[in-house]
Amino acid sequence: MPRSRHSNIGRQPSQLRIRLVPPITVVLGSMVTALPIITDYPILPPMGLIILLAWRLIRPGYWKVWAGFPLGLIDDIFSGQPFGSAAFLWSVVFILLEAIDRKAVSRDYWQDWLIASIATVFVLLGGMLIVDLQSNMLRLDLLVPQILLSILLYPFVARLIGAIDHWRVAS
Amino acid sequence: MAPPINRRPGFSKRAQYSIFASYLLGILGAILGLLLLLVSFIDPLGFSALRTIGAEAIAPVSKTLSDIGGATGNAEGEISAYFNAASKNAAMRRELEQNRIEILEARALKQENERLKRLLKLDEDVPDSIAMARLISSTASSSRRIATLGVGSNSGLEPGQPVRSPEGLVGRVLETGPTTARVLLVSDGKNVTPVQRASDSLPAFATGRGDGTVDIQPINIGTNPFKGGDLLITSGSGGLYSPGIPVAVVIRKTETGAIGRVLANPAKVSHAIVQPIFQAETMRQIGKNAASDAKKETGE
Fold first, then answer.
1. Which residue of A has its CA nearest to B41?
2. Number of residue pairs across A and B with CB atoms under 8 Å?
3. Of A24, A48, B205, B272, which residue has the fewest beta carbons closer than 10 angstroms?
4. Separation CA B139–CA B266 (nearest Å)
5. Tens of pLDDT along B16-47?
C-alpha cells in the first residue's frame, strides 16, 4: 500500500477501495456458511480466517494488531461458535503474527503457507476446545478432514487474494 | 512473498511507544473476546439477537441456493427415470396393488386404535405439524451442529419445538427469527434426547457426538443390554418430544452403552416438519420453576 500511495504515475485508486476491499472479502468469507451445505461433521474450511490470513501475510503493513477482534466478532455471528470465540482466537493469531513480523528478516512463500497452516490449526483446535469446555466430549479426530482441506486450500486463496490485491491498488 | 518492510523502531522513543500501544490494543481485543466468551458461556442465548440478524441477512441467499440445489437434484432423478421405465412401471403397478391391501388393513387398525384410545381416555389432541420447511444451511465450519430452517416465528415457531423428518428426529428449535430458525441437531454435543428401545421400551439418553452419531447411555447403569441394530425412538419423557419418533440405530456397543447412527441425516432431509412441544403445559411449569429458583438464588 505505501508504494502505491507515493506513486505519482497515473491516477490514484480510490481510497475507499484501498481501505475497504480487504475487510469486505474477509466478511464475505465468513458468510460462506450461507451456502446450503448441511453436514454431519465440520468439513467446510473456515473461509473468513483463510482469507484474512492470506491478506495478513501478503500485506503485513495494512493490518492493525487489533484487526482480528472486529473481524472475529463478525465471523462469530455466522459460524455458530459461542460468541467471542473467533474474536479471541483471531486476536491471538494477530498478536503472534505481529511478533513474528518484527523478528523475521524476510519470508518466502513456503513459510507463509506454514504460518497460515499453523494458525488455521490453532484456531480450529481452539474453537473445538471452546465448544467442548462445556460438553466434555473432546473428539479431535473429527477435525482432521477440515484441517487438511483448509491447509490445501490456502495456496488457492492466496492466489485469489493476490489478484484482488492487484486490482485494489491498480489505478 | 515480498520481504516485509523494515519496521524496527530503532532508538526513537516515539516509535517504540506506538508499537507498544498497538500491541496493547491487540491484547485488549483478545481480552475482550475472552470476556464475551465468558458471557456467552453463562448465558448461551445472550447474543441470539445478533445471530438472528446474521441468519436473516443471509437467508435470501441460502434459500435461493438451496432451491437451485433442489432443482438440479430433481432433474438428475427425472433423467435417470427415463431409463428402464417399462420395468419400473410394471413393478409400480404390483406395488400399488399391494399398497391398496395394506391401506385397507391400516384403516381397520386405525379405527380399532381410536376405539381403544377412547376407552382409555387417552385421546390427546396434539396437532401434527406447525410448519414444514427446508433446512437451508448449517454451521458446516464449526464443531457445533446447528442448522438453519427456512421458517421462523412468523409461522408460529418457538424455541424448544421438535423438528422431525419422515425418517426420524432432526433436532429442536434453538432460536427463532421472523423468517429463519436455528435448529440444534440431534448429533450436537449439547443435545441430550430421552429415548427408549423400540422393542422393549428400555429407557436411555442419547447425547450427540458431533459427527452424525449419538452416544447412548441406559438409565439403569450396570447392565449393557444394547446390540447392533436396536432401534431407538423418543420416549416422551421430559415433555419436549412426542413419543415414538425414530431417533437412531445402534451400530456398536461401548463399555457402558452404545453408539448409534442418527436416522434423519440432515444432509439428505428434503423437508423438515416442526411439531408443537409434546406437553407444552409441563414445559411451561418447568420454565416457571426454573425462573423462580433463579430469582431465589440471586436474591440470597
1. A82
2. 210
3. A24
4. 12
5. 788 888 888 889 989 999 998 888 888 777 78
Distance from CA of A95 to the nearest CA of B (A): 6
Prediction ipTM score: 0.78
What total of structural domains would you count in chain B? 2
Segment 72-111 of chain B within 8 Å of chain A by CB? none
Domain that holds residue B102: 89-123
Residue B73: predicted pLDDT = 47
Report yes or no: B38 at the A interface, CB cutoff 8 Å.
Answer: yes
pLDDT at B166: 81
- Residues in B closer than 8 angstroms to A60, CB to CB, are 4-5
- B209 touches B215 (CB < 8 A): yes
Question: Considering only CB atoms, which chain A residues are within 8 Å of B4?
Answer: 60-61, 101, 104, 106-107
Q: What is the CA radius of gyration of chain A?
A: 17
Cross-chain residue pair B138–A37, CB shorter than 8 Å: yes
Distance of CA A82 to the CA centre of its chain: 19
Residue B165 C-alpha, separation from nearest chain A C-alpha, in angstroms: 15
Q: Which of B5-9, B78-82, B105-109, B201-205 has the highest mean pLDDT?
A: B201-205
In a domain, B228, yes or no: yes
In a domain, B171, yes or no: no
Cell 503457507 locates to A113
What is the C-alpha to C-alpha distance for residues B117 and B119, in angstroms, rounded to an integer? 5
Q: Does A166 reach chain B within 8 Å, measured CB to CB?
A: no
Name residues 50-69 of chain B within 8 A of A (Cβ).
50-51, 53-54, 58-59, 61-62, 65-66, 69
Q: Which residue has the higher pLDDT, A26 or A132?
A: A26
Question: Does residue B157 form part of some domain?
Answer: no
**CA geometry: angle B59, B64, B66, nearest 5 deg:** 90
In a domain, B178, yes or no: no
Confidence of residue A1 (pLDDT cuts 50, 70, 90): very low
Mean pLDDT of the region A105-110: 79
- Top residue of A5, A57, A83 to mutate, by most chain B CBs within 10 Å, is A83
- DSSP-derived 3-state class of residue B252: strand
Rounded distance, CA A158 to CA A57, Å? 9
pLDDT in tens, B238-262: 888 888 888 998 988 888 889 999 8
CB-based contact B214:B230 (threshold 8 Å): no
